[in-house]
Amino acid sequence: MQKKLNKLLCCLLAVSIASASMFCYNYYSFADEETPASQEETTAASEETTLSEEEAREQARQMLEAQKATLEADLKAAEEMIASLSEASKNTEDYINALDTKIGVLNQQLTVLDEQVIAYQEDIDILQKNIDENQTQADELQSEVDRVQGILNDLNEKFKIKYEAYCIRMRAIYISGSYNLLTALLTSEDISGFLTRYEMIKAVSKSDAELLEDIQDQTNEILLQESDLSEKKQTLDGIRETLTAEQTEQQAKQDALTATQEEIASKKIILAQDRAESDELFAKLTAENGMYTEFRNEDKEITEAVEKEISDLIAGIITPDQVTEYTTKPRDGVTAESSSDIEVYSNSDAVLSMCYPVPGHTTISAGFPNYSNGSYHGGIDFPCPTGTKVVAAQKGVVLTVKRLSYSYGYYVMIYHGTDSLGRTIVTLYAHNSSILVSAGQTVYKGQQIASSGSTGNSTGPHCHFEIRADGTRINPKNYLT
Q1: Confidence of residue 131 (pLDDT cuts 50, 70, 90)
Q2: Are 356 and 452 in contact (CB under 8 A)?
Q3: Among 380, 442, 434, which Cα is nearest to 415's?
Q4: Please, where are the H alpha helices in 290-363?
Q5: Could you give the CA distance from residue 281 to residue 297 in angstroms, rounded to a whole number?
Q6: DSSP tag of 318
Q7: 20 to 30 A from 441, CA-CA: which of 119, 160, 429, 462?
Q8: Pairwise CA distance, residues 231 & 67, whole Å
Q9: Does position 233 have pLDDT exceeding 50, yes or no?
Q10: 107, 78 Cβ separation under 8 angstroms
Q11: Is the dihedral of CA 204, 207, 213, 217 positive or negative?
C-alpha cells in the first residue's frame, strides 16, 4: 500500500506540473468540427462573393490609374503646345483653342479624381465597418478571457489548499507505514476495539479516497479552463493582428484620399486661372472680328441642370391634336379663322422647312455640333447687333420663356408639332436682350418673338438657334431656307 501511495503522490505531482503549462488547443477547433456542411458551404460562398467584389474594385482602381496616366500625358502635350504658341502671340484662335484643350483635360482629370475620392471613401467605409466589427469581437473576447482567467485563478487557489492537505496526509501515511497500521489493529485489547479501530482506519481511507478524487476533479477542471483560456487568447491575438492591419490600411487610404483632395483643389485653381485667361482672350478675339458666340468653358453643373429642365419640359409636351384644338380657339382678339393658319404640324416634314431666325444675318460664328476648339455646341450662332429682330423659324406654340443670368440667358422655346417620323420638333432662341411673347402663345412663321442681345453665357450680341427632334439636337443648317 505504501508503494501505491508513493506512486500516486508522484503522479499527482506530475499532473500538477503539467497543468501549469497546458496551452495547446485552438479556441474554435471544436466549433469548426461541429459546423454543418451547409454552413461551411455558405461561408465559402460568401468568401468567394467578397473576393469577387474586391477584384472588381481593384480592377476599377487600376482603370482610374490608367486614365490618370493617359490624361497626364495629354495635359503635358497641351502645355507644350501652349508654350510654343505663346512665343508668337496669345491673341490667336490657335492659342485659345490650345488653352481650351488644356481646360478640357483638366476637367477630365477632375472627373477621374472625383471618382477616386469616392472609391477611397468607399474603401475607408468598408474598412471602418470591419474595424468596428473586429473591435467589438475583440472586446467581447477580452471580457471572456478575463472571466476564464478569474475562474482559473479561483480553481488554482482551491487546488492549492486541497493539494497541501493531501500532501500532509500522504506524508503522515508515509511516516506511519503499513506496519504501524497493522500494529494498531493487532494490539487491540478485544474484538470490539479491533472493529472500532478498523472502522476508523476505513473511514480515514475513504476520506483519503474522496480527497484524492476531489483533487483529480479539480485538476481536470484546471486543465480544461487553461485549454479554454489558451484558445481564447490565441483567437484574441489573431483578431488584434487583423485589427491592426485594417487600421494601418485605413490610414493609408485616408492619406491617399487627403492627397487626392489636395490635388483636386490645386487643379481647380489652375482651371480657374486658365478659364479666366481663355474667356478674356476669346472675348477680345470675337470683339475684334465681330464673330460673337458663347464662352466655351461654362460650368458642367450649370449646363447639365439647364439641359435637364429643357428635356423634362419637352418630355411633357401635349399631342399635336391637343395643341391644334387649343390654338384654333379665339384668343386675345385673334379670330378662329386667322388662328387656324398657325396650327402645329402633325406627322409632316413641312415642319422642318424653316426660315433663318435673324432675317438678313446668315453668317455663322459657331456651328453645329462643335466649336472650333472641338467642344460641343448644340446649335448655330448668328452674330447680329443688339436689338435685331429675332423671328420664329416656323409656326407653332411658345413652349416656354426663360430669363436667366447664365447659360442661354433670355431664351424662347417654340413647339411646332411632329415630323413624318412622329418626332416632336422644338426650336430654341437664346441670349436675347428682350422677349416679346409668352408661354402658350401661338406664333406664325417669321413673326418677331424677341430682340437679340448678349445675355447669359455670351461673348457679344448674337442669336443662338437650336432645333430639337424628340429632345435631341440636330443640325439647324440642314433645315434653314
Answers
A1: very high
A2: no
A3: 442
A4: 300-315, 320-327, 336-339
A5: 13
A6: P
A7: 462
A8: 49
A9: yes
A10: no
A11: negative
Cell of 251: 490610414
CA–CA separation, 20 and 261 (whole Å): 56
Average pLDDT for residues 384-402, to the nearest whole number? 96
Question: How far, in Å, are 174, 197, 202 from residue 186 at the CA level?
Answer: 20, 10, 15
Angle at Cα 37 formed by Cα 31 and Cα 42, nearest 5°?
95
* Cβ atoms of 382 and 463 closer than 8 Å: yes
**pTM of the full structure:** 0.64
**Are 81 and 96 spatial neighbours (Cβ–Cβ below 8 Å)?**
no
| CA-wise closest residue to 381 among 395, 370, 373, 392 | 370
Mapping DSSP to helix (H, G, I), strand (E, B) and coil, where does residue 469 land? strand
Within 8 A by CB and 6+ apart from 459, the residues are: 282, 283, 286, 287, 292, 293, 294, 295
Which cell numbers in the block locate residue 153?
Answer: 485563478
Contact status, residue 101 vs residue 75, Cβ threshold 8 Å: no
Instruction: Scan for cell 477611397, then name that residue.
Output: 120
The answer to whether the beta carbons of residues 330 and 351 sit under 8 Å apart is no
DSSP, res 334: B
pLDDT of the residue at 141: 85
CB of 433 closer than 8 Å to CB of 455: yes
For residue 366, give the DSSP letter. B
The three grid cell numbers given for residue 396, joined into one nine-digit string:
407653332
Largest CA distance in the chain: 152
The whole-chain average pLDDT of the chain stands at: 81
Cα distance between residue 103 and residue 78, in whole Å:
9
Q: What mean pLDDT comes out for the span 122-127?
A: 93
Ranking 106-115, 135-144, 267-276, 334-343 by mean pLDDT, the lowest is: 334-343
For residue 48, the tally of other CB atoms under 10 A from its CB is 10
Q: How many residues does the chain have?
A: 481
Nearest to 108 by CA among 79, 70, 82, 76: 70
Residue 66: its H or E element: helix 37-86
462 SS3 class: strand
Say how many Å lie between the first and final Cα of the chain, rounded.
129
Q: What is the mean pLDDT of residues 17-22?
A: 35
Cα–Cα nearest to 352, from 471, 451, 445: 445
Task: Show Cβ contacts of residue 402 under 8 Å, excluding neighbours closer than 6 positions.
Answer: 408, 410, 411
Quick one: 386 exposed, middle or buried, by C-beta within 10 A (0-12, 13-18, 19+)?
middle
Separation CA 443–CA 396 (nearest Å): 6
Report the alpha-carbon distance of residue 391 to residue 437 in Å, rounded.
11
